[in-house]
Amino acid sequence: MAEISPLRRRMIEDMTVRNLSPATQQSYLNAVAKLSRYFGRSPDRLDLEDIRAFQVHLVATGMSWPALNQIVCALRFFYGVTLGHDTVPERIAYARQPRKLPVVLSADEVVSFLEAIPSLKSRTALTTVYAAGLRVSEVVLLKVVDIDSQRMLIRVEHGKGGKDRYVMLSPQLLRILRTYWRLTRPKRWLFPGRDDERPLVPNVLHAACRSACAAAGLSKSVTVHTLRHTFATHLLENGADVRIIQVLLGHASLASTARYTQVATKTISNTPSPLDRLRLEVVPPG
């Protein structure tokens, strides 16, 4: 087993002290390692010009904006926290990410999509995503004890940012989960992987989405996160307060939730135009 360098060990300790999730820690370590490999030197011997050249290289490779900004977060952490530089982190520029409207399914499309999933486990898990607005990382880590049928709540542990929250437990979802439980008898994890000791891996649900999208004949590109977007949009269209939706989604900022107002087409179409308040007749020119 390769020995961990003192610099890498220090970065791991810094991330652990700040309670960064294991996935985030691994992502940050990979980003710094990628920078080091690109120049063939230890990252503590690189300066801002080197980091800028590395960013230019990444953009040229066609890396996505979210992936670019994840690397920026990692480098800012490494240079600001682990190396203790005061000015370097703020000069590592984020990529300006284009703001695209999320893909949202209609109610009929949700039914067609979910019914096209042949696996009972994957269908139930993705139904739970839509019913409760969960992230894929949250649904696969649900435990049987997280389903509180007495209070009609689902406990979500260690969501994004390490935060716990509660979401609603739909009566229809409860019936579906009870049927699923009777047929599969999961023990600890609600959606176990190949054995009962480990949870389902997210890639299983990603693959199920791709297959179901094709089987249902949907022209839209549907991912697990599409169901979360659809959950929020349908709630908004049905009159739910955007601040309640923010809590259910686990958003730290209301601005993240407010973008669903741009795709809530039912709400938009039902909003009267100021023209409707005028008594105006368009008379053809004489």
TrEMBL record:
According to its UniProt entry, the protein's GO biological process terms are: DNA integration; DNA recombination
Q: One Pfam family for this entry, by name?
A: Phage_int_SAM_4
Keywords from the UniProt entry: DNA integration, DNA recombination, DNA-binding
Tell me which residues make up the Core-binding (CB) domain. 2-83
**Domain named Tyr recombinase: which ranges?**
100-273
Transmembrane regions listed in the UniProt entry: none
Molecular function per GO: DNA binding
**UniProt entry tagged with the keyword DNA-binding:** yes
* Family as reported in the entry's similarity comment: Belongs to the 'phage' integrase family.
Q: What's the protein name?
A: Integrase
